[in-house]
Amino acid sequence: xxxxxxxxxxxxxxxxxxxxxxxxxxxxxxxxxxxxxxxxxxxxxxxxxxxxxxxxxxxxxxxxxxxxxxxxxxxxxxxxxxxxxxxxxxxxxxxxxxxxxxxxxxxxxxxxxxxxxxxxxxxxxxxxxxxxxxxxxxxxxxxxxxxxxxxxxxxxxxxxxxxxxxxxxxxxxxxxxxxxxxxxxxxxxxxxxxxxxxxxxxxxxxxxxxxxxxxxxxxxxxxxxxxxxxxxxxxxxxxxxxxxxxxxxxxxxxxxxxxxxxxxxxxxxxxxxxxxxxxxxxxxxxxxxxxxx
Length: 293
Ligand SMILES: Nc1nc2c(ncn2[C@@H]2O[C@H](COP(=O)(O)OP(=O)(O)OP(=O)(O)O)[C@@H](O)[C@H]2O)c(=O)[nH]1
Description:
62% helix, Alpha-Beta Plaits, 293 residues, 2 domains
């Protein structure tokens, strides 16, 4: 159990102890002790139980909440309730000078005030939870959306592409799958730098996107490999898209950092067509094999 809350809420804790202490002092200095024979022990058990349980609620409230308006409202409300239950309990042992005595009078009032304050506090807590929930769902959506985008190229990730392929299969759509690979990328990284490598990946990705049709989807599959999914596309059409990308990359005069001389690149491509109801992992394996060849 973490007792750091005593430090966090020291003002509230001190106020509770002072209030309860002052009430007890008032009860025992102003009232007269009853004889033991008149004590109703069932009442003592019930009222004492309410007092202890209210104190336990207060303890858990302070232990689990940060300082703030909601915590103040709830702890003041519970303290009022605590005072009422304390007076209820003590009047089993102490009698007051008359029925109009001020301690009689305040016995019931704090409970009502406490209930009102707690109701207001709970209402504020409800709003606080709604705001927290809104923030959490915004953050969750951010991570969900961004985990589907490759950080370097800003293309879709391989996971997103797999979801997309599953959807095409569910809709019974056939597709052409193209794989593209930058030649000698490892060597380029070695000769220049990985920062230049990252920039090259980004520029090649831009060229891929520029040559796509609206229904096509491109993703960074791994390292220097890209995949394009082209729904309802014939082999010749898909190959034409790949050739256009190859031409665009071939003409890209890439200048590594600190070099005025352009470096030119080639990409290898392969295309396969999916069979009806074929597992997409199998199509990816086929296109991978075709590219290796
Ligand atoms: N700069 C950079 N390099 C990466 C990244 N991811 C993978 N690589 C590097 O990409 C290289 C890919 O190497 P290979 O698969 O051998 O590809 P390659 O050199 O083009 O060989 P071929 O495809 O046979 O021409 C490896 O050296 C990886 O370290 C990345 O995000 N940024």
